[in-house]
Amino acid sequence: MALFKWCFRVVLLLITLSACAAGYLYHVMTSPINLTSEDIFEVQAGDTSYSLGVSLSEKDIIEHPVLTRIVSKIHPEWVPKVGQYALKPDMTLLDVMAVFDSGQSIFYSVTLLEGKTTREFLAAMQAKGNITMTLEGLSDQAIVDALSLNVTHPEGLFFANTYRYHEGDTDVSILKHANQLLNQTLSELWANKADDLPYKTSYDALIMASIIEKETGVPEERPLISRVFISRLEKKMRLQTDPTVIYGLGEGFDGNLTRKSLQSPSPYNTYKIAALPPTPIANVGREAIYAALNPGETTALYFVAKGDGSHTFSNTLKEHNRAVRQYQFKRREDYRSAPQTTPETAK
């Protein structure tokens, strides 16, 4: 009888201790972690529940590394996903392990501006410092091959927009997304285009959109410039637009467009050819594509930059030459042919 009482007391003590231990563990796992401000924590490939505990302990976020292993025993379905995670002071250890399992790691963003070339898009991604770059320095053909595009030139095939990505995502993955969005937008707007446009394909409209975008960033001018260029095409007139010439010059352009430049033999020299250039000259957003497919109403055949980012439109060559003398021969000190574009103004 005495032995029975002793065993009973031992069992009761063990049960009590187990209950206390369980209560303590529950308290620790449901109490806020040791943070006073948001912290970035990275789950790396090969991390286990215990190695995560060690890392969290080394950063003084939790006290005992074994706690993460205990959580994994309680929730064996939780599997930490590689990525960077924002840990906040009000989170518990259970919250932390749950967010590791969710894969909802930190997103970053990169803005690819309207009117920029594909090379400039790559430079913008390189500048972020946390995108894996694989396309820089490659030829145009190598770039389209890497992106599995059924073309020979990548220009204009990426929608100007702000894209979210995870640390370490590749330039290829971002540009594939941009190409998908471009194709979706172009297809949608092409299906609802105005009648009697001089385009054989939607790609022709994309070429026109890129020229419109390079000529102006003033939203209300895009449809008017579109109409001017469309009218010139219909009349078999040369477009005579400087941005196409500059694009054709490539790295040979030093910032000064000369008479010699305008005589350069190039499929992009619209002072020499009476047609659209062979490819877009920049990447665009929805507004430029819409303008190319839905031109405004004007009888103008000419326009010239006024120097403040806007243009004046003329119906006749005589009127145009007068405008050129007014705005080009005596340029203002702060002259610019198009408004400055920033991530804040880009749409």
UniProtKB/TrEMBL annotation:
Residues 1-21 form the signal peptide. It is an enzyme of class 4 (lyase). The keyword Membrane applies. InterPro entries: MLTG-like (IPR003770). The record marks E215 as: Important for catalytic activity. The keyword Mitochondrion does not apply. Belongs to the transglycosylase MltG family. NCBIfam families: endolytic transglycosylase MltG. Functions as a peptidoglycan terminase that cleaves nascent peptidoglycan strands endolytically to terminate their elongation. This is Endolytic murein transglycosylase. It comes from Marinomonas vulgaris.
